[in-house]
Amino acid sequence: MSNRKTQKPSQTSSILNRIIWLTFALTLFVGMFGLGTVYLRHEAAVLANENKALYANISEQKRHIAELGAVIARQTTRDQLKALNQEYGLGLRLPTERQIVHVLEDPTKRLYEKQSGTMLTAASF
User: Fold this and answer.
1) For residues 84 and 77, what is the distance between their CA atoms, to the nearest angstrom?
2) Apex 74 CA angle, 70 and 80, nearest 5
3) Cβ-contact 76, 69 below 8 angstroms
C-alpha cells in the first residue's frame, strides 16, 4: 500500500465538473433537436417532390384523355360513321323519327329516382 493520501475534490472543481457535464448534456439535447428538425424538413421536401410528380402525372393523364376525346369526336361524325358502316358491311340505318325519344327532364335525376325506388328502406317494412 502506498502512503499516498487521497485528496477530496474541492468544492470549486465539483461545481466546475457539474457545469461541464450540464453543458455537454445541453449540447447533446440541442443537437438531437436540430437533427430532428433537419430530418423533418428532409421528409417534407421528399413529400413535396412526390406531390409534384403526382400532379405532373395527373395533368399528363388529363391531357391524354382530352386527346382521346378529340380523336373520338373526329371518328364519330355522321359521315365517318356512314363510311365505317359501309366498310364493315354492318347494315346499320339511321333511326326513324318514331324511334327517337326526347328526354325533357334531367336524366341523372331520373336515374337516381329510379335507383332509389328499388332500394329497400326501413320505412318500407
Assistant:
1) 11
2) 160
3) no
Q: Locate cell 430532428: which residue?
A: 36
pTM of the predicted model as reported, rounded to 2 decimal places: 0.47
Phi, psi of 90 (to 5 degrees): -80, -25
Q: What does each C-alpha distance from 68 to 54, 57, 73, 82, 97 come to in angstroms? A: 21, 16, 8, 21, 31
pLDDT by position in tens, the chain (length 125): 555 556 666 778 888 999 999 999 999 999 999 999 999 999 999 999 999 999 999 999 999 999 999 998 888 888 888 888 999 999 998 889 999 888 888 888 888 888 887 665 555 55
Residue 81 phi, psi (nearest 5): -65, -40
N-to-C CA span, the chain: 101
Q: Show the cell assigned to 10.
A: 474541492
Cell of 98: 318514331
CB 85 within 8 A of CB 92: yes
- The answer for 93, left when phi > 0, alpha when psi is -120 to 50, beta otherwise, is beta
